[in-house]
Amino acid sequence: MGANELLSVKQLSVKLHNNVILSDTHLTLNFGDILGLVGPSGCGKTTLLNTIAGFNTPSTGELNIKRNNSNSANLVVQENVLTITPFSHVEPQHRNIGMIFQDYALFPHLSVEKNICFGINKLPKSEQKSRMTDLLHLLKLTGLEARFPHQLSGGQQQRVAIARALAPQPTLLLLDEPFSNIDARLRNELMLEMRQILKQLKMSAIFVTHSKDEVFTFADKIAVMHKGSILQIGSPAEVCQSPNSWQVADFLQLGSWIPVKAINGQFQSAVGELPSTEDIDLEENTVKYKEYSPKLQLLLKSQAIEYYEGGFEKNNVQVDNISITEHGFHYLLSSIDRDLSLSFEQLSFYSNFLLTLGQRIAIKIKIHDYQVFDSYDDILG
Ligand SMILES: Nc1ncnc2c1ncn2[C@@H]1O[C@H](COP(=O)(O)OP(=O)(O)OP(=O)(O)O)[C@@H](O)[C@H]1O
């Protein structure tokens, strides 16, 4: 493992009740990084988290977890690396990992104080007291130590769950959908505060979420999962700028999709020909599509759409839906061209121009570095 790596997962597969849930999964996490696992429901996010925590056993592959808290290369010694394989299981309590469950799993019959100290009750009383006082302060829970979980708000319960997970001073924190039970209005504020706390503690963390907004606010890196594998891992900016597959771009809703046909390197669409591909390295792009695939899709961001005012003879779309947002009017456009192979129904377009429902207008694509993906493999399953 590299000096800065806290966790490495190699060729991991996991079977549950004879079903393959994870296959050939690779992942590395550096000290101090917060990684968000995202993907559609059922893709295996919780299974991966539970396998790292030690609640599932790998069928193949290997996990390596460092147990020390330091990222200083010369302090890392081999004995501090736990290696977990199908033949060498390490119990969850020996992994030095803290886990926060979606429902927080606080002990209802224990006070805040006893919940927090649950995992450190073998330490001397003075040490327990000192860690608890620090955590109460850090998580703004001072004064609530005698309360029971049912006497706390959802946000306070989450803070207690975090304090309890941090008390044993884990190397890694795992959080399963940590913000899903928090009121939508408070969620953003709480995410920013929790992120600050984890950064202050230099704590490494992996969290699971369904929400792209959550992952962009809370994570340093994101891993997009699909059908039991990680498709792409990188910083939010890297993944948004260069999604490596149709599934990644689609899950993160990076733009609208319109069908295209490739004819000698030139793409045709229901809103005209795309700018020339002369500058595009087709060799490189062939990893994303096969020229004759029947399901080539262009990823189109609203800013790449140019509106021709008064160009009615070139009308190619009509306005099917209008809503008002903080970015101006949001229109959903469908193509007028009914060529089934190229028509589209929901092109998202933000503009300050006032258009009316059913109005036909002309648009043009103004991008030069467009991204075309092949969604055929996904349709085949
Ligand atoms: N104990 C189990 N035995 C058998 N199959 C399971 C078990 N736990 C989960 N699965 C299956 O594994 C797949 C992945 O489940 P998992 O909970 O890891 O997905 P997820 O991405 O976290 O989903 P969600 O976002 O809906 O929570 C699902 O098809 C689920 O039905």
Automatic annotation (TrEMBL):
Keyword terms, alphabetized: ATP-binding, Cell membrane, Ion transport, Iron, Iron transport, Membrane, Nucleotide-binding, Transport
Matching SMART domains: AAA
Span of domain ABC transporter: 7-252
GO MF annotation, one: ATP binding
Tree of life domain: Bacteria
Family annotation (InterPro entries): AAA+_ATPase (IPR003593), ABC_SmlMolc_Importer (IPR050093), ABC_transporter-like_ATP-bd (IPR003439), ABC_transporter-like_CS (IPR017871), ABC_transpr_FbpC (IPR015853), P-loop_NTPase (IPR027417)
UniProt xrefs under PROSITE patterns: ABC_TRANSPORTER_1 (PS00211), ABC_TRANSPORTER_2 (PS50893)
Pfam families to which the protein is assigned, alphabetical: ABC_tran (PF00005)
Any one annotated GO CC term: membrane
GO biological processes: quaternary ammonium group transport
Protein name per the record: ABC transporter ATP-binding protein
Source species taxonomy: Bacteria, Pseudomonadati, Pseudomonadota, Gammaproteobacteria, Alteromonadales
